[in-house]
Write a structure and sequence with these properties.
By secondary structure, this protein is mostly helical. The protein has helices spanning 6-27, 32-36, 50-53, 61-82, 84-112, 130-135, 143-156, 173-189, 198-217, 229-254, 274-287, 294-304; strands at residues 38-39, 120-123, 126-129, 138-139, 161-162, 171-172. The protein has a two-stranded antiparallel sheet. A two-stranded antiparallel sheet has the order 2-3. It has a two-stranded antiparallel sheet with strand order 5-6.
């Protein structure tokens, strides 16, 4: 646990504490899900705060285990790249976005079934008031936010190879993300019935994609979150290159003419490709280190060593 970044660790703890609290309270006859789960916005038990609270509730051990495993596996990496503030903002925002998309999907279903025209609904031979039936449309789970984290990992490290059970060979992160999108899209279009909020999963990824694309086009918008360790690393590396470049120039300008070697040319080659190095660093920021070619990696390594 000491090696897990702060915000990822706190999210794991809060989710597991909420799961235990839900289990204990339900044993005492208190239905916490009906209070904190995200209800359909036309249901009588709907409240705005549920857009936050629903993502900390889970329907069973398997549900929370896989969500938290994915959060630990991918969230820890993303937080180290972005920093805790940006990571938490992204996580909560995508969770809310997932809930909004789920509400839209439920409203489409509400209109398609004509529930606005019926006072009662027939459920297996039992008549139920429509308002009570709508209260059953409740969404819980961190899956929407977790799927957004998976998307962020795939966009930051698109060519990172992952071993995913049951496949005996590594899969690039970008193909894993595309595969999950295809599965969720197919499941959502197949219609409701499996008890899984597939549209919420897709909604979290959609909001995540929009946010990441916006941040890439407007990098200054991320300044309010502070600089992450990853950003500091590459900024420091670029500073070192710039400093060496200036020192190299200064050395040949400040030295007296009689002390300059006449048999050798000034070491211009060392910095003549500085623009290319800057382009490589910018490429790392945008697409990750794994996006570099072998030649670019070698140039970056050689320059960092001062060759």
């Amino acid at each position: 646990m000491n090696n897990i970044p702060t915000m990822t660790k706190n999210l794991l703890i809060v989710n597991f504490l909420a799961f235990v609290a839900t289990w204990v309270l339900e044993l005492r006859g208190i239905d916490i899900t009906s209070l904190l789960g995200l209800h359909f916005f036309l249901a009588k038990d709907f409240h705005l705060y549920q857009f936050i609270t629903y993502m900390f509730l889970h329907g069973g051990f398997t549900h929370i285990f896989f969500n938290m495993f994915a959060l630990w596996m991918f969230g820890a990496v993303v937080e180290r790249v972005w920093g805790p503030k940006k990571f938490l903002f992204y996580y909560i925002s995508c969770g809310i976005g997932a809930g909004l998309i789920q509400e839209v999907a439920q409203y489409v279903n509400y209109i398609a079934e004509g529930l606005d025209t019926f006072e009662r609904v027939n459920l297996g031979g039992t008549l139920m008031l429509t308002e009570d039936y709508l209260n059953l449309w409740t969404t819980i789970g961190a899956s929407g936010a977790v799927y957004a984290i998976l998307l962020a990992f795939g966009m930051i490290f698109p060519n990172e190879r992952l071993f995913i059970i049951p496949f005996p060979f590594p899969i690039k992160a970008k193909w894993l993300v595309i595969g999950y999108i295809a599965i969720e899209l197919f499941s959502a279009l197949s219609g409701p019935g499996d008890g899984v909020a597939h549209t919420a999963h897709l909604g979290g990824m959609l909001f995540g994609f929009i946010m990441i694309r916006y941040w890439k086009k407007h990098p200054e918008s991320s300044n309010r979150f502070g600089r992450s360790r990853g950003q500091e690393f590459f900024d420091n590396m670029k500073h070192r290159f710039d400093e060496r470049k200036q020192n190299g120039r200064r050395r040949w300008v400040d030295e007296p003419d009689e002390e300059k070697p006449h048999a050798e040319e000034p070491p211009k080659k060392k910095w003549e490709n500085q623009e290319e190095i800057d382009a490589i660093l910018d490429k790392i920021r945008k697409s990750g280190y794994d996006s570099l070619t072998k030649e670019e990696k070698k140039k970056l390594f050689d320059q960092s060593k001062g060759n």
